[in-house]
Design a protein that fits this description.
Blueprint lengths: L2 E4 L2 E3 L8 H10 L6 H20 L9 H11 L9 H14 L15 H16 L4 H19 L11 H12 L4 H20 L39 H4 L18
Helix pairs in contact: 1-2, 2-4, 3-4, 5-6, 6-8, 7-8
């Protein structure tokens, strides 16, 4: 018994399987944009896939992309798999998902990088411990993410390895590209994160004090200095960072020059 699906696409037997009622709709959908021969191949593959699902006793609500992979593997044992067969079945399943016939594909949650894991815990700290407004959290996070990626790349985030030079160099590089308001936000975000790192016990010295103060910066004239420590850590002697401008105290808007 012949079965006419749509617009001259004819099968030698009735449609079978859990998707048999959808093959005709799929055939209508392929009317736009596909030549007859291509349409026939797509509809034929969809019909055979439905028949195979029926033979496997798979219901429509159980269908996933894994079934299309298994079907093509089974088909390869006795028929030649065409180059576009996998793409056609993906197309068919997407069509069925849009219609609500088969469930949406469950995708595993993305694997977080070490930087993203650190950022996530920092966000929770700001939200739950500091009770910071969500708008402020959203503004802080991109700067912290960039700072950590700049220092640790794709590797493990070991906050105990952070040094004042890391902080100052990052701020000076970034601030030269920012307007004054954004530069101030950058330094606020870094101070907040470095206080958090100390709160965790992973940083013993007050690295937040190493963040340059930008209140009196005149863009694009960026200070080439860092604040002095007053509670233990040694003063920075790196000429690449301190340069000849000395060390800014960042206290009360005053600046004092450290001799060499």
């Amino acid at each position: 018994m012949k079965c006419i699906v749509n617009d001259g696409v004819v099968f030698s037997r009735p449609l079978e399987g859990p998707l048999s009622g959808q093959v005709s709709e799929f055939a209508k959908w392929t009317l736009e944009g596909y030549a007859f021969r291509s349409r026939r191949q797509k509809v034929l593959l969809a019909a055979r896939f439905s028949r195979w699902l029926g033979q496997q006793a798979v219901s429509a609500r159980q269908i996933s992309s894994e079934h299309s992979t298994r079907y093509l593997r089974s088909r390869a044992g006795h028929l030649k798999v065409q180059r576009d067969d996998a793409a056609t079945l993906r197309q068919f399943l997407d069509f069925l998902r849009r219609r609500g016939v088969v469930p949406a594909e469950k995708t595993p949650p993305p694997q977080l990088t070490p930087v993203e894991r650190t950022v996530l815990t920092f966000k929770r700290y700001l939200r739950d411990e500091r009770i910071l407004a969500e708008a402020s959290i959203v503004r802080y996070v991109p700067f912290v993410r960039k700072f950590l990626a700049d220092r640790f790349g794709d590797g493990p985030v070991r906050l105990s390895l952070l040094r004042a030079t890391d902080v100052v160099r990052f701020v000076l590089r970034q601030a030269s590209r920012l307007h004054l308001k954004r530069a101030k936000l950058l330094t606020s975000a870094l101070r907040s994160f470095l206080h958090y790192a100390r709160y965790l016990g992973q940083v013993r010295c007050d690295l937040a004090a190493a963040v340059p103060t930008v209140a009196n910066w005149s863009m694009p004239s960026i200070p080439r200095a860092i604040p002095a420590y007053r509670d233990g850590p040694p003063r920075l002697r790196d000429p690449a960072v301190a340069g000849s401008a000395g060390i800014a105290s960042g206290r009360g808007g005053e600046t004092r020059t450290q001799g060499h």
